[in-house]
Amino acid sequence: MKKLSTFILAFIIFQVNAQQRNLAEKLGYSAEDKLLIIHADDIGLAHSENIATIEAMKKGIVNSTSIMMPSPWATEVAELIKDMPGLDIGVHITLTDEWFNYRWGPLSGKNAVPGLVGKDGYFHFDCAAVAQNASPEEVEKEIRAQIDAALAIGIQPTHLDSHMGCVFYGRPEFVVSYLKLAQEYGIPAMMVEGLFQQVVVPNKELFKEINLDQVKIIDNVLIASTEIYDSIGLPEYYTNVMNELQPGVNVLLIHVAYDDEEMKAITTRFDHWHGKWRQGDFDFFTSEKAKKLLEENNIKLVTWKEIGKL
């Protein structure tokens, strides 16, 4: 029985790897092509975040974003993108609020999902508290509420992803809801191959209602860390990413906003992910240098919208 189980697991992993290698080809590229989604998280967070993100998509090389529906500035996004019908915009599933003086809570209602609410009446500050206090049913209810809220203001989501990675933190049942609702609404959910094998494969019984063959698994997710910011800096990191990008489908996660008074107030007491960081992301990805790096490294930009059509 043990040998049979090992064989089955190996077969599943083989199938996953085969899909991973073929995703680029399914998009019409070769397996050796370097494909990249330059994805600006957190649109809807603030007015500054909204206008900077849209500017970076119109004049820079940012080609994807996702909206934080519980955030107070989410509804503005629908107005700002009316002249961008082809926009690649997903729902940035938000289960936390990490800011000290800028707070929000669940769209499904505090009484409906009490495990997602902290002592102050708003979302918990971190993913560990969500995993410890929220039930899978509550998480699924809130994910659905956020997708429905996006649809209600006229946004047709091209994908789902997760703010701070909380969907993937600690509870495989959260991932079940994430993939289940992506399947129900007919949009891809961001899932990287390593995470798929770490969370989904060992718990495949939990995912029996999901057609795992249809999960679009990308090769790599890249994001600057606080250590990178403090050591080599963002421009050097992004330059290295472009120069060393591997073949396959890659997602580079960034955060763009203007370093203005609004962002300074929102990010009070933060040494990272603040206005200065987000201004740096905006400056790099609207620069001629960034455009040149794409050309020099023969990197092709793709979108979640294209992946969703598969």
TrEMBL record:
GO terms under biological process: carbohydrate metabolic process
Instruction: Give one Pfam family, short name only.
Output: YdjC
UniProt superkingdom: Bacteria
Look up keyword Metal-binding and say if it applies. yes
| Swiss-Prot/TrEMBL cofactor(s) | Mg(2+)
Q: Which keywords belong to this entry?
A: Carbohydrate metabolism, Hydrolase, Magnesium, Metal-binding
Q: Which is an annotated GO molecular function term of this record?
A: deacetylase activity
What's the protein name? Glycoside hydrolase/deacetylase ChbG (UPF0249 family)
